[in-house]
Amino acid sequence: MCAICGCGGPDHKHDHDQGHDHHHDHDHDHDHDHHHAHAPGLSATRMVQVERDIFAENQRHADANRRYFAAQGLFVVNLVSSPGSGKTTLLVKTVEALKAEMPVAVIEGDQQTGLDAERIKATGVPAYQINTGKGCHLDAHGVGHALEHLTPIEDGVLFIENVGNLVCPAGFDLGEAHKVVVLSTTEGEDKPLKYPDMFFAADLMLLNKSDLLPYVDFSVEKAADYAGRVHPGMEMLTLSARSGEGMAAWLAWLRAGVAAARAGKAEARPKPRVALSAGT
Amino acid sequence: MHEMALCEGLIQALEEQARAQDFARVHKVFLEIGALATIEPDAMRFNFPIVAKGTLAEGAALEIDFMDASAWCMACSRRVAVKRHGEGCPACGSYQLQILDGAQMRIKQLEVS
């Protein structure tokens, strides 16, 4: 049973034969008393003050994931978009470009099938598929458990490809460094206005399928303007995963993130005590 | 759609509170939801009774206080109320807003026995 969450129902299988350490902080423990079996009786009601944020539970898992990523020197990107924006193709091309120079791993989120993880695995990097079933988003708890199934990597990049959905994933921090939203030129340029929560939550917008711009009625200028209304100062890169146009700037953005994560690793890890040698 | 998951989180929080504040039943939940919390109050009202079934909060009423978010308008140099992202400052229309709060979903108080 996982100590951070107290989960361990019959539908929750844990595989502890991965030959590596469990990454979770083990400072939480939950008992499983439930008080709902009591009869209401005739006792009078009373008011109790609470002040508790419902997102706090996801946040606790997200914070634990973030501490783990920091200690591993991992740059973690949570890729979000509507279905069909070309996220997986973009990811395959990105992984192919980076895998020779740094460790890369991928967590895939979809309602059903392991198809996306298979496409990533074909590139030769570790990938794990989370199937959310009826769920519409990944949460930090599920990502924490997905990490148990991946051989740990250090000093590299972990991509989390979220469920194709521009609504629900906006509200769930997974512990990533950045959410990156992919908008493609075959969609409407007004998506930032229609789904503002997501474009506010993301730090970078990738405008994908730029090779199709001559054939579609998509204004890059308008898309940038709308994104700026929702999220002033948001970064935007235009690219085509298919033709490779604009990929260099995206890869440079990722390399800079990885460099920062590596540099921060020493800070994130507890410092070993080193005895000063005499005379220094 | 994710309101179902949030209702499950809410029930979990109620169970924790029941242990901490020693009560057995929840009759009414007073929630505060910020305008930028990515939560639809109606979806919460629809999902809560379903998720609460068989728990300490079965049959409990849900009282939602939907709050405006606030932002700092760079153009007006003051704090303004906002209802959603991308609509600009209600006073001057500028989009140069820095969101200050409004993403919360908080349990404020509970009527319990």
Structure characterization notes:
The complex is a heterodimer of chains A (280) and B (113). Chain A has 280 residues and is α/β, with parallel strands linked by helices. Chain A has helices at residues 56-72, 87-98, 115-121, 140-147, 191-194, 196-201, 220-230, 247-268; strands at residues 46-53, 75-81, 104-110, 127-131, 157-161, 178-184, 204-208, 235-238. Chain A has eight helices and eight strands. In chain A, strands 4-3-5-2-6-7-8 form a seven-stranded parallel sheet, with helices on both faces. Chain A is globular, with a radius of gyration of 22 Å. Chain B is of the alpha+beta class. Chain B has two helices and six strands, in the order αβαβββββ. In chain B, the strands form two sheets. Chain B has a three-stranded mixed sheet, with helices on one face. Chain B is elongated and about 50 Å long. The A-B interface holds A 33-36, 38, 40-41, 43-58, 135-137, 139, 167-168, 170-172, 192-193, 196-197, 199-200, 226, 228-232 and B 1-2, 5-6, 9-10, 12-13, 15, 17-19, 21, 23-25, 27, 36-39, 54-58, 84-86, 88, 95-99, 103-113. Strand 1 (46-53) of chain A pairs antiparallel with strand 6 of chain B, so a sheet runs across the interface.
Q: How would you summarize this macromolecular structure in one to three sentences?
A:
The complex is a heterodimer of chains A (280) and B (113). By secondary structure, chain A is of the alpha/beta class.
CA(first)-CA(last) distance of chain A = 49 Å
Oligomer: heterodimer
Return the average pLDDT of chain B rounded to an integer.
Answer: 93
Alpha plus pi helix count of chain B: 2
Which properties best describe this structure?
heterodimer; A: 280 residues; alpha/beta; B: 113 residues; alpha+beta; three-stranded antiparallel sheet
